[in-house]
Amino acid sequence: GRPGDSLPPVDFEEVRTKLAERHKRLAATRGIQDEDVMSSLMYPDVFTDFADFRERYTSSVWGLPTWAFWKSLRSGENVNVELEHGKDVHIKMHTVGGATGDGHVEVFMEMNGMPRTVFVEDDRPVMGAVGGGSTKRRKASGAPGSVGAPMPGKVVEVAVKVGDAVEKGDKLAALSAMKMHVVVSAPVAGIVRAVEIDKGDELQNGDLVVELE
């Protein structure tokens, strides 16, 4: 008889329901298609890996050139991605910020000329200090008076010193970042308790700039 005669019966709709429960994002964005049901039955492990990948990176990765997907973009490199017919997005890579402490890094880029920031998993190898060591900067604590760098950049101006009184919105420092002049302002009024930077310092996102009390 036919090969299928010896196989146990399968409830396709039950399989579809289980796939929707297992792959919620995929189900919400495109639905569980007939080919998904069949693929999961014939190649369960392969389909699960593929579906997990699509949920993690979304279905838009198909538009990336192969070199950009496998090697990623370097600072200053550009890529065009066709999201759908007649709808393209131009991406320009700027820089990768410091680690956030939860296994992610902040990535700064432009999309169609507009600055964008995204957080991605940090899979970079841990590198040792170069040239005999490097200074590990303190990070802003998140308290109102703990002011951190809003993005990676070079300090071009230090506008306050210890003991200065500042009002909310006063300039504390300025950075040169992504070809922009970025002002670091006081989020609250207070007295400058500590200045953690000097002109010319290279900062990462979240590095402590000034402490207010």
From TrEMBL:
Domain (Lipoyl-binding) spans 138-213
- Top-rank lineage group of the source organism: Eukaryota
Tell me, which GO biological process terms does this entry list? gluconeogenesis
> Which Pfam families does this chain map to?
Biotin_lipoyl, PYC_OADA
Alphabetized UniProt keyword annotations: Biotin
* GO MF annotation: an example: pyruvate carboxylase activity
Q: Name one GO cellular component term.
A: cytoplasm
Does Phosphoprotein appear among the keywords? no
Return the CDD domains for the record: biotinyl_domain
Q: What is this protein called?
A: Lipoyl-binding domain-containing protein
The organism of origin for this protein: Sexangularia sp. CB-2014
